[in-house]
Amino acid sequence: MNSKYFNITVKPDMTGQNAVTAFANDDVMFDWASFLVPKGGARLIAVTAIVRGADITRQEHPMDLYFAKATSAGDAPTTLGTVNATAAGVGYFNELLGCLNIPIEDYRDGLDNMSMSHTNTVATGAGIVMDDLTPSGGYNTYYLGVIAKGAFDFGTGVLSAGGTSADDSGITVDGSAATKAFAVGDVIVDNGNAAVGTIKTVATTSITLVSGSTEAIADNDELVPKNPITFILHFER
């Protein structure tokens, strides 16, 4: 890698049930999500967060990000705790590498249906240096865990109209406009944790999937994004 700077995108998964359940302060929002960093050492200098709305309305809440390495056996750290509950997990302590806060002041207010923040205070001093000794195919594996510091809620108000059978590729929706909640390429699930699929096209009252729905969707099931927050990690090496 010749460039001094590079980005890594991390899109942690969330179940549909957790997406439609409001988070409380200090709840686990995402347990450890893995990502790869090229070997040779890298310094995390900033984080951009792209946050989907609550019922298609922009939401801005702080959050704490924790970074960890793999265990000596090459496994993921033990759990932070149950999602939508406090971080009561144990055993991961020796894998922690660093942490940072995304404050509410780092959000920008111009978007109607979602929000975006950029935090570069992590670059103060040495930043967070990632260089452990568990390489995998030229990369080191690291983990991101996220704690809510406000009432995040990823419900969309987009409801299945009439339901679908497994393998259906078209979904008719009502409630909120689907175009305000989803975009092409989004992976969606429903509030009952059914895996739905990846969006090929989206209109106000309809969604077409790349392939048929993985599971049946009931009438009035709420559709939500599987990855409601995208983190772009900005590195220097």
Name a few traits of the molecule.
237 residues, 2 domains, six-stranded antiparallel beta sheet, 2% helix, 1 helix, globular, mainly beta
Number of domains: 2
SS field, number of helical segments: 1
Average per-residue pLDDT, rounded, comes to 93
Low-confidence stretches: none
Straight-line distance between termini:
9 Å
What does this structure look like?
The mean pLDDT is 93. Strands 1, 3, 6, 7, 8 and 17 form a six-stranded antiparallel sheet that branches. The chain is globular. It is mainly beta and 237 residues long. The N and C termini lie close together (9 Å). The protein has two domains: 159 residues; 64 residues, no CATH class.
Summarize the structure.
By secondary structure, the chain is mainly beta. 2% of the residues lie in helices and 43% in strands. The protein has two domains: 5-153 and 227-236; 158-221, no CATH class.
